[in-house]
Amino acid sequence: MSAPDRHGAAEHGFASSRRSAEYGFTSQRRSAEYGFTLIELMVALAVFSIAALALLRLEGATLTSTGVLADRTIGQIVARNLAVEALTDPVAPSFGEARGREENGGRKWTWTRRSVRATDLNLQQIDIAVTDDAGRPAGSLTVFRALQ
């Protein structure tokens, strides 16, 4: 270190040197009491904003998938309810295709039931497909019923 700087640079945490005193330059070193530089703040802000945007995108995807899962869960419940009706009704569903609408969970669902004779001639295969109002598949189920 050289002699004390006449401009008081040492008091402010800057290293003084003969060159800085002679030409008015100060050293690039600084003490911790002065905080961050503008470029450091800009880099930190950029990193934070990238992380925040990634979290927002993740939350959006989570909300979307939660809605899809809720639709599929209710659609599957509708399919199971129709399967229970087909299995517990004393009269077996007729062979062929039947369509209908149900309301469950405050929404309307469209279902299709297809009934065919299974490869084992003593069984009836019942395929049930449920769609939402927009026609998107929401649930499906296949059950077998013994023929009498």
From TrEMBL:
<comment type="similarity">
    <text>Belongs to the GSP I family.</text>
</comment>
<dbReference type="InterPro" id="IPR010052">
    <property type="entry name" value="T2SS_protein-GspI"/>
</dbReference>
<keyword id="KW-0812">Transmembrane</keyword>
<keyword id="KW-1133">Transmembrane helix</keyword>
<dbReference type="InterPro" id="IPR045584">
    <property type="entry name" value="Pilin-like"/>
</dbReference>
<keyword id="KW-1003">Cell membrane</keyword>
<keyword id="KW-0488">Methylation</keyword>
<dbReference type="GO" id="GO:0015628">
    <property type="term" value="P:protein secretion by the type II secretion system"/>
</dbReference>
<feature type="domain" description="Type II secretion system protein GspI C-terminal">
    <location>
        <begin position="69"/>
        <end position="144"/>
    </location>
</feature>
<comment type="function">
    <text>Component of the type II secretion system required for the energy-dependent secretion of extracellular factors such as proteases and toxins from the periplasm.</text>
</comment>
<comment type="subunit">
    <text>Type II secretion is composed of four main components: the outer membrane complex, the inner membrane complex, the cytoplasmic secretion ATPase and the periplasm-spanning pseudopilus.</text>
</comment>
<dbReference type="InterPro" id="IPR003413">
    <property type="entry name" value="T2SS_GspI_C"/>
</dbReference>
<dbReference type="Pfam" id="PF02501">
    <property type="entry name" value="T2SSI"/>
</dbReference>
<protein>
    <recommendedName>
        <fullName>Type II secretion system protein I</fullName>
    </recommendedName>
</protein>
<dbReference type="Pfam" id="PF07963">
    <property type="entry name" value="N_methyl"/>
</dbReference>
<keyword id="KW-0997">Cell inner membrane</keyword>
<dbReference type="GO" id="GO:0005886">
    <property type="term" value="C:plasma membrane"/>
</dbReference>
<dbReference type="InterPro" id="IPR012902">
    <property type="entry name" value="N_methyl_site"/>
</dbReference>
<dbReference type="GO" id="GO:0015627">
    <property type="term" value="C:type II protein secretion system complex"/>
</dbReference>
<keyword id="KW-0472">Membrane</keyword>
<feature type="transmembrane region" description="Helical">
    <location>
        <begin position="34"/>
        <end position="56"/>
    </location>
</feature>
